[in-house]
Amino acid sequence: MTDAAESRFAPYVGRQSEPIVVDVERGHIRRFAEAVGDTNPIYVDEAAARAAGHPRIPAPPTFAIALRANDPRGGIELDWRKLLHGEQELVFTRPLYAGDRLTLVGRIAAADVKQTKSGVMDVMVLETIADDSDGARVFVARSTVLVRR
Description:
Layout: E1 20-23, H1 26-36, H2 46-51, E2 83-92, E3 101-116, E4 119-132, E5 137-148
Antiparallel strand pairs: 1-3, 2-5, 3-4, 4-5
């Protein structure tokens, strides 16, 4: 990234969405595993999950993408036709399990400018932060988007 100009999204860094509470449901985990073609029995069978060392049915790691926080970009003028998804990252402190109750908060974590072959782009890093009912962090999903100028 470059210091050539400030991103038009820089004033919004740190902005957070209103929290939303979601329950991780066994049926949602099963449907997600089926949709991605993951036939591992730990995602559908409590006995198989326990035999594998889990306290209850775990969710596949990419299941976290299906849990959406409220969007912190409300009120920011965006031309969605010029938005590109650049990168996705999931950082877990523990697995997700059926029965978890999570509080999700969306956050604009960073903004910058990048010079590319096709011109200058604004870069925005969005995070979904998930804490369990005890307030412990479960995961952070980080998404980098680019917006063509």
